[in-house]
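Supplementary Text 2. Reproducibility record for the structural model of the 304-residue chain.

All settings were left at their defaults, and a single model was retained for analysis rather than an ensemble. We include the record here because the model underlies the residue-level annotations in Supplementary Table 4.
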Amino acid sequence: MKLHIPKPCFVLLILMTSLFASTTLAANSNLFREYIGAQFKGVKFSDVPINPNVNFHFILSFAIDYDTSSPPSPTDGNFNTFWDTQNLSPSDVSSIKNQNPNVKVALSLGGDTVQGNSVNFSPSSIDSWVSNAVSSLTSIIKTYNLDGIDVDYEHFMGDPSTFAECIGRLITTLKNNNVISFASIAPFDDDEVQSHYLALWESYSNIIDYVNFQFYAYDQSTTEAQFIDYYNKQSSNYNSEKVLVSFVSDGSRGLGPENGFFDACRMLKSQQMLNGIFVYSADDSKADGFRYENEAQELLASPN
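Retained model, structure tokens:
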């Protein structure tokens, strides 16, 4: 017998189906990301275990708009590579991507220090910085066959609106030019840092794909309950579907893998709120045989 659905009910059914679909898309992600190369400990892409059932992003650390003199000084957007290029070369990028179809490689901008000095975001003007940054980063990204960028400035000479316009225009241009396919930001809970990244988020959230929130910047005494509270707070500051959780592999800060991090992740996953995990960094994890990278990827890949 053919079922007749009155038109108003049919419309309601369509709306409910659409709502269910959007809810499904907001479910847990299997995204795993790891910073690599900043500490020059000889780690290679091939050293890191890669679970074939996750989406894996290596993030080269760091590209910095400083020159290579000693000490380095700002260049107004002309970026240079400051990661371990001897062990993480263009051919190494091509090799790891060819061997692992689930792997993409990005570079991170800025970071905390260069040769012991703070890396400052210090543009002379928005137009000049963006022009120089687009040119220099396009060259690096194409040379290394990279897929995306991450923004990890932690010290600022410019005001929040200038930062927002510089970074927002940079990401927009690189995406429009098909130079990158994704972009992330890496804020942490500090008033100055948040003021800059939230200004960027307010104007350009639509072009930012992931928020690598540095939950490891919180105190080492952080409990699981506090971690969940921090996650909820940052999910309200940014898009709750884009905020990734994180730990630092040397265990020096934040809620660590030995103190309940993975329990907190399982709680978020049970609530369909685990958008992915990132680690800082492979350089430190090498000494421990990447124990926690394996555990994190197994958690992300598991159906429950």
